[in-house]
Amino acid sequence: MKKPVKIIFSVVLSVAMVLSLALTAYGASSLTSDFAVTVENGKVFDENGDLYTGWYIKNRHKYYAENGRRARGWKKIGKQYYYFAADYAMAKNKIVGSKSKGYYYVDKSGARVTSNEIKMAVDFVMKNSNPASRQRNRLKQCFDALRKYPYVGKSDTPPGASQLPSYARYMFTRQCGDCYYYGITMAYIARVLGYDSRAAMGAVTAWGPAHPLSPHGWCEVRVDSGWKMIDCSMQNGHPDANLFFVGRDRYPYRLRCDKTYALNINNGKVSWR
Fold first, then answer.
1. What is the C-alpha to C-alpha distance for residues 101 and 107, in angstroms, rounded to an integer?
2. Cβ-count burial of 74 within 10 angstroms (0-12 exposed, 13-18 middle, 19+ buried)?
3. Which of 81, 155, 207, 209 is deepest in the core (most CB within 10 A)?
4. Which residues does the UniProt record annotate as the domain Transglutaminase-like (predicted)?
């Protein structure tokens, strides 16, 4: 009878460790579920009836309270800043803030992201899209705005992961660039609008099968279980085509994809892989 006990103990310990790691990654040293806290007259109490301090979940939304008082607006917790909406729920994977205090992107963990490229993307989105529009419409508005930046050929050599942030900074500040600059910059824009995004590198031609492919870069965003292309530079060259939100299988030109770099943001940290 000893072996089953050891196995059960091992499984319980493993589950506890996984939960602990998950809570830490989620920005909380402790997280209380619906049943462990109560909210009465705007105050949060623990199971003993004492004023509660810490994270808690209600109706699948995450909240934070300090001495029973629910957080609202920006709140620094540990090393990160989080944003709590008017209903006190923590915001995640969206642009939040105000004109007076500034707008920021908060990632899927709720942490405020302060990298230069993300801040530039937020500024671009707020300037070139209507906050009242739906997510996809805002992305289209930004796509149309970015395409107005003139195409300036820079290099036929696709950039590596470490170079991608500088390409976006260049496009946001100089307001010009080639297909790689468009694609990488669009990936940042899509990310702050809540899409999983990546930059793709490969080759393309709009001519016949005898014509060689030319080096090319574009953006892709995840929609449900698939990916959709957003191709600013080819759209500029072929205005009658639909190159926004199109799957590779429906892309009207001969295309080859050699490499993709996913834009990853977690706990406020940005990386390309």
1. 19
2. middle
3. 81
4. 134-231
